[in-house]
Amino acid sequence: MTEPPAGHSSPGNGAGASLDFDAVSFGPFSLRSRLLERDGAPVKLGSRAMDILRLLLSRAGEVVPKNEILSYAWSGLAVEEISLRVHVAELRKVLGDGKDGARYITNVPSRGYCFVAPVQRGERNAAPALAPRAPERTAPPAALPHRLDRMIGRDDVLPELSARLLSDRFVTLRGPGGIGKTTVATALAHDMWQAFEGDVHFLEFGPLKDATLVASTVAAALGLVVHHDDPSGSIVNFLRGRRLLLILDSCEHVIDEVARLAENIYREAPGIAILATSRESLLVEGEQIFELIPLAGPPQGAHLSAGEVLDYPAAQLFIDRAAAAGHRGDITDEDAEVLAEICGKLDGIALAIELAAVRVGVYGLREMAALLDSRLKLDWRGRRTAPPRQQTLGATLDWSFGLIGESERTVFQRLAIFAGPFTLKGAIAVAADEGAAPDRVVEALEQLVAKSLVSAQPDGASRRYRLLDATRVYAMQKLVDEGEAAAIARRHTAYVQRTLEAGLAEQGDQASRLQARASLLADARAALEWSFADHDGAALRVPLAGSAARLFVELNLLNEARIWSGRALAMLDDANQGGKWELELQSTLGHAFMFTERNSEQAEAALRRGLEIAEALDDHANAFRLLSRLNMFYRRTGDYRHLVPTALQAERIARQIGDTAGIAGSKALLGVSYHLAGDQAEAQAHLDEGVRDDAALRGTEPGHFAYSRTPQIPLARVLWLRGFPDRALDCVRPLVGAAAPRDVVMYCIALCWSSSVFGWVGDCAAVETMTGRLATHANVHGLAPYEAVATGFRAQTMIARGELAGGVDLLRSALPRLHADRYELYASAFAADLSQGLAALGRLTEGLQVLHETIARVEHGGGGFDMPELLRRRGDLEARTGDLGAAEASFAASLALAEQQGALSWRLRTEMSLAALRLRQGIKNPLDDLAATYARFSEGFETADLKAARLVLDEASA
Predict the structure, then answer these.
(1) Are 292 and 175 in contact (CB under 8 A)?
(2) Whole-structure pTM value
(3) Strands 244-249 and 200-204, how do they pair?
(4) What are 293-331's pLDDT values in tens digits?
(5) CA-to-CA distance for 191 and 206, rounded, in angstroms?
(6) Alpha-carbon Rg of the chain, whole angstroms?
(7) Which residues partner with 31 through β-bridges?
(8) Quick check: 143 and 307 in contact, CB under 8 A?
(9) What is the separation, in whole angstroms, between the first and last Cα of the chain?
(10) Side by side, which strands form the sheet with 112-115?
């Protein structure tokens, strides 16, 4: 092959043949001229994508600049880079790039694209010779509708539909309005033109107003001359013994007549293949349904790059149509999430995507995303040449609305109140007339599903229903026009509240309960918005917020939990004071405040008030839940003196309940409490008990009162402190891998506490990895306090590696944030690192001041597990200032406290510091105590502290 000359014109301009291709093969593919084959079978590829492939193959192994590709494939045209990205995405999909390890085309950022797979020039040695090129097909006649130059996202549909049609003979392509049924049918007519030797007849029933004219329309298309009112018999007689393809497009408004005729043809003319397109099934003998599903769109909230978003056909179609309409903006990674949001709102409906895309040049992506929430999109006009019913979304839906009965219209309008998927029970609760039998709603819903106005998806043994976004906007306007919006909104809010409340009390499979409750999230949000905005919803505000509060916590939506609980409590009336709704709201508010705002007095007051109500109501499960949250609050604020009493109270309640997981959870609570309070032996004993029943704990779901208790998290730290570094690492690694907690907050805690263990053993790389995960996770979920903790750990590793100034500056910014939030759990360790960094910079006085303040703060909270280490650090700095007596006193206090706490690893560190002081003082046998402490270890000899101690001992004996 030869490199294309500069300024090479595209095949579309008649110059594509100047690249002279012999046979070229790569992977399972062969390319000769413009014929691409996979394992000898032709592969369909658009002309632009073919140009790009030919150019990249001609320079395989080189990076071909993007501007060269653009000028080759779009010679003489001014196009944006986004067009290139869309066609490269199409090419990669056809080649299966990335599947099963296959790599063909790679993007080199800011440069271009490179074909990276091995390329064999000439005939493939191991394969038979390429078959001679097939003769050119006779062009389909003008009688067939014009085929789109490029159909996006349906590459897999056409081969499957063609195969089904040839095997089953009678297929209905079914789907909602605007999804692309006519586009697919047109493409199939062109593709199957040769298979049926040119005998393909495409009948468009959309413009037909009189259903009695269906048969005569078919007869005319077949060239029959009939002289009677019903030519059906003549049609069947004519078709009997013939072989042809009959495509009946847009049948839903004349469906009875089409169904009768199609069934007769199927029975009497076995050589005839029939493809019908309709928004509902024909329901006759022989019919096979091929459901045309929406175009796949990128997931929202997944933080995909622009390239990843453009791998999805909904996004590809949007960008393709936007570019065709003159939009010249490129899609950046920052725009990717907005594009994903737009695709989500358009539900993969091709017509909706096209109508929105052509307006991007006017509004821009972000404004477009906002406009899609309004009715305006129903009135946007599309191609002038499209049938009237397809020129706007509103016209498409008017067409369907006009085909349903009055009862179905009423139910359809009322179902628009649902913001998310709904059940049959929900549909009846909202759409049934008061006092009327539910049968009418059931029958109407069946018809709406059959006519593709409501979609249905299996959900276990039952089904869930939903209205596509554009359909819902349309139906909601109808509901408003009928004057029913407020009444139906109240019904909907009451239904959501009752269902959520029932879920709080139900027993049985917790996973299925949570799934059922979680499916109501969108409707809970909508109901809350309506009830707090509309006077008619005032009586439902507190019960609804109380019912939804736990759902928000279970789904880790803590900001929403805080906002709605606070708003509901602000309007609590006498009837709800001290009742179950205040209990739910206070418990949720205190919990959410802790993790999203700060560990304030307001958070503590809410939790204390909730506990008071739970005890008065004899609600043991909620009492345990609130004691757990209070215990967490005191851990975070550093008030360690409250930990063991609250944990013991929770254990008594768990034993009263008699739940295995609850008792295991109480052991985990006691273990972490003893650990932080400074009794590591007692902590290990309780945590070991909790681990023995870990299976019961892991089997709990978010609704369980002991959910998210994970004894392995504190156990890893306890094991290190007790002198078992290797066991600590074995315990901690699964917590940040396969056995990571499912709960968002507990995962943050696992990352934090794992970081401390990795830091203690001297694995700075692992600390950096954990810190990166923590920062990302906290940012994604809006857990602001953990972002400050992540900053502290990052500074810790910087100081350990000698990046002193940067580490000190980071800690100077992180510690005030932690103190302002009353988040003291990690502050003492970070303060110790700050003092070390300051001392290394020669600022000993500042370092000592930081330690004095930190020790005083910890003592005020009742002491803590890291007090021996703080005292040791203080002794080190006192020794450096020359105050050897004070240093020796600090070391002695540290050793005594470490021994009292059962913290052998703290003792080892202090013995090393004390040994250095004694060597400096010239004291006899300065290393005896260090050697004795070292001898107490049975493992961990490759961790940082034990290696350092061994080095000191070896140097002394050398």
Answers:
(1) yes
(2) 0.62
(3) parallel
(4) 989 989 887 888 888 888 899 888 888 878 876 776 677
(5) 23
(6) 36
(7) 24, 36
(8) no
(9) 73
(10) 63-65, 112-115, 105-108
